[in-house]
């Protein structure tokens, strides 16, 4: 059956799609798993176009395993390939919370799954890992190298007095072997561990409850179709801490009592919280709170949260909605939000187009739904930036999503404000022609009279000018085969 | 609605220049037990409109002996911080109205959430 399906080019489809199969998947879908990534994509695109997958048992998840993506403080890292872009700002923000600078070692590559950082104490690393959802594990690096010989030399140069507290004869330990982009047989892992015999291990091995865990980490590059025989690089170190990836499960949207159609994914909510440097006892505000996913993540890290929304029904999980105006300046330590783009939620604000609106009958009836009017995307961002400039504390951060029509995007389109400095700008691809960017800004000065509308008339906002202009662009790509050409256009104009 | 929230709300009916502070007319008030966090209360105090908080507590009958002027060394004064904690975070208006001091417009509070949305002619 599969072979009869016409092929579609992968660019018709988000580049970061892969498939996870449930046990009750129909037989013909099972075969998908044996195909190459390219073939799978084209078939899935076909099935989606035919509507065959509606209600069926395939879950589409990003990531596709052909892009590198793991990271970590001083080593192994992240699993969600989609979030590669988010790692550096997260780690930097978490280090800044500790008052520590980000000092990568020589040869640092942002795209690498392994990062080595310098000048950090074990407590620093623990505090970063207690928050990070991008980093998988952190290690104290004892040695590294491209070959077994190099690794050995490097390890033997590590000061014995730094090793001995973890290797003396009353201690218990185990050694793990982690490989990136390759799976080793059990026997091969044992061989690798045995080859480390030159290290002065004096303690007893305990697989279940060791006091210390050591890891050999091997990097086999990032191309799954061309896995080398020997690792490109090796690291050996003492395990310190794991990141907070399990939080993504505990806070999963699936476990919530009440969600909406744009509830933010738990992992991204936590990443936004980290980008915003939210810490204990902070007051965090979300002007488009919706079902509160972002605030759930903030409160997990000990912040006090508040939010507003225009939508009665959405907030009804708790009761009535509210839209509040802040009385005073410099109130919030962070503002994190996911504004409505008008794709899945309409953009509205209170107000009316009528010149002489009818007076309401009687008093303010409980069930009265105020007329809302179209809210241009450009106005949403202008209002959001102005609001943040006035109500953030100095050094406080605004973190929000900006929708992007990729063929037209350039960095200059990101809204600016004289009081807010851009800290990071990370892309999450949604399809061949659209993506959203997570923008982090920090308040660097108090607003003055002249600042209030400084960027209002800027022509850069044309993309977001006009109600539903972005929505029209968003959907335009679905009707034409623009993927390949768009990408080309996009690259040329970068 | 906690009084912390009330402290941040203002009436934004068209034409109103001074819509702050909103008067509270409560028909149901609840007091929740909440963990006392002196650091958070200390950090919030300088951000508060103190007069508005005291007035709101007074109107609800929960002022007790909260002073009209902010004490100077509040950071060290745990007893004082506990009082602020109580009015700021524990006292919650569940049902009632907020009234704009200038226009008299009333905003309903239902199930603890104030509805500040305006009608067609007011925005």
TrEMBL record, chain A:
Ranges for domain tRNA (guanine(10)-N(2))-methyltransferase TRMT11 N-terminal: 85-245
GO cellular component terms, A-Z: cytoplasm
Name recorded for this polypeptide: tRNA (guanine(10)-N(2))-methyltransferase
Pfam families for the chain: Tmrp11_N
Enzyme class label: transferase
Domain of life: Eukaryota
EC assignment: 2.1.1.214
Keywords: Cytoplasm, Methyltransferase, RNA-binding, S-adenosyl-L-methionine, Transferase, tRNA processing, tRNA-binding
From TrEMBL, chain B:
GO MF: protein heterodimerization activity
Family statement: Belongs to the TRM112 family.
Organism lineage string: Eukaryota, Metazoa, Chordata, Craniata, Vertebrata
GO biological process, one term: tRNA methylation
Main location: cytoplasm
Pfam family, one: Trm112p
Keyword Cytoplasm: yes
Subcellular location(s) per record: Cytoplasm, Perinuclear region; Nucleus, Nucleoplasm
Gene3D superfamilies documented for this protein: 2.20.25.10
SUPFAM superfamilies reported in the protein's UniProt record: Trm112p-like
Domain of life from the UniProt record: Eukaryota
Keyword Nucleus on entry: yes
Gene source species: Oryzias javanicus (Javanese ricefish)
GO cellular component, one term: perinuclear region of cytoplasm
InterPro entries, alphabetized: Trm112, Trm112-like
PANTHER family on file: MULTIFUNCTIONAL METHYLTRANSFERASE SUBUNIT TRM112-LIKE PROTEIN (PTHR12773:SF0), UPF0315 PROTEIN-RELATED (PTHR12773)
Keyword field: Cytoplasm, Nucleus
Protein name as annotated: Multifunctional methyltransferase subunit TRM112-like protein
């Amino acid at each position: 059956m599969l072979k009869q399906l016409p092929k579609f080019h992968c660019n018709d489809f988000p580049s970061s799609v892969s498939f996870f199969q449930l046990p009750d998947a129909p037989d013909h879908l099972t075969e998908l798993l044996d195909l190459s990534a390219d073939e799978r994509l084209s078939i899935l695109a076909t099935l989606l176009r035919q509507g065959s997958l509606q209600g069926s048992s395939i879950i589409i998840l990003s990531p596709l395993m052909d892009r590198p993506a793991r990271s970590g403080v001083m080593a192994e890292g992240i699993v969600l390939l989609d979030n590669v872009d988010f790692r550096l700002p997260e780690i930097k923000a978490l280090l800044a919370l500790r008052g520590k600078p980000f000092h990568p070692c020589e040869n640092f590559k942002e795209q690498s799954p392994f990062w080595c950082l310098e000048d950090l104490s074990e407590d620093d690393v623990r505090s970063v890992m207690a928050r990070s959802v991008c980093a998988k594990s952190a290690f104290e690096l004892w040695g590294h190298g491209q070959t077994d010989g190099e690794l050995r030399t490097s390890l033997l140069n590590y000061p014995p007095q730094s090793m001995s507290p973890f290797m003396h004869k009353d201690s218990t330990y185990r050694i793990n072997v982690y490989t990136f982009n390759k799976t080793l047989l059990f026997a091969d892992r044992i061989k690798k561990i045995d080859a480390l015999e030159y290290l002065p291990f004096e303690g007893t091995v305990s697989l279940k409850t060791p006091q210390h865990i050591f890891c050999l980490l091997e990097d086999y590059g990032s191309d799954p179709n061309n896995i080398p025989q020997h690792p490109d690089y090796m690291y050996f170190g003492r395990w310190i801490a794991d990141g907070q990836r399990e939080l993504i499960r505990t806070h999963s949207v699936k476990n919530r009592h009440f969600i909406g159609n744009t509830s933010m994914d738990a992992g991204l909510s936590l990443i936004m919280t980290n980008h915003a440097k939210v810490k204990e006892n902070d007051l965090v505000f979300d002007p488009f709170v919706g079902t509160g996913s972002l605030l759930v993540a903030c409160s997990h890290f000990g912040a006090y949260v508040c939010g507003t929304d225009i939508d009665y029904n959405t907030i009804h999980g708790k009761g009535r909605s509210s839209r509040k105006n802040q009385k005073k300046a410099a109130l919030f330590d962070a503002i994190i939000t996911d504004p409505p783009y008008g794709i899945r939620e309409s953009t509205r604000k209170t107000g009316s187009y009528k010149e002489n609106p009818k007076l309401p009958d009687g008093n303010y009836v409980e069930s009265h739904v105020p007329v809302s009017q179209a809210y241009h995307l450009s106005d949403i961002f202008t209002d959001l930036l102005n609001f943040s400039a006035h109500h953030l504390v100095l050094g406080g951060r605004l973190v929000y999503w900006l929708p992007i029509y990729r063929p037209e995007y350039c960095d200059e389109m990101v809204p600016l404000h004289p009081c807010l400095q851009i800290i990071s700008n990370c892309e999450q691809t949604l399809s061949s022609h659209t993506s959203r960017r997570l923008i982090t800004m920090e308040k660097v000065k108090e607003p003055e009279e002249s600042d209030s509308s400084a960027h209002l008339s800027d022509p850069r906002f044309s993309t977001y000018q006009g109600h539903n202009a972005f929505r029209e662009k968003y959907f335009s790509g679905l009707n034409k085969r623009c993927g390949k050409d768009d990408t080309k256009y996009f690259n040329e104009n970068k | 609605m906690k009084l912390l929230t009330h402290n941040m709300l203002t009436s934004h009916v068209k034409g109103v220049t001074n819509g702050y502070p909103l008067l509270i007319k409560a028909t149901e008030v609840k007091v929740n037990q909440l963990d006392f966090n002196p650091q958070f209360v200390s950090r919030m105090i300088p951000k508060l409109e103190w007069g508005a908080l005291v007035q709101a507590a007074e109107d609800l009958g929960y002022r007790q002996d909260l002073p009209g002027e902010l004490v100077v060394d509040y950071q060290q004064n745990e007893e004082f911080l506990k009082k602020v904690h109580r009015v700021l975070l524990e006292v919650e208006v569940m049902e009632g109205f907020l009234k704009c001091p200038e226009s008299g417009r009333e905003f309903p509070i239902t199930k603890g959430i104030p509805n500040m949305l305006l009608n067609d002619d007011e925005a």
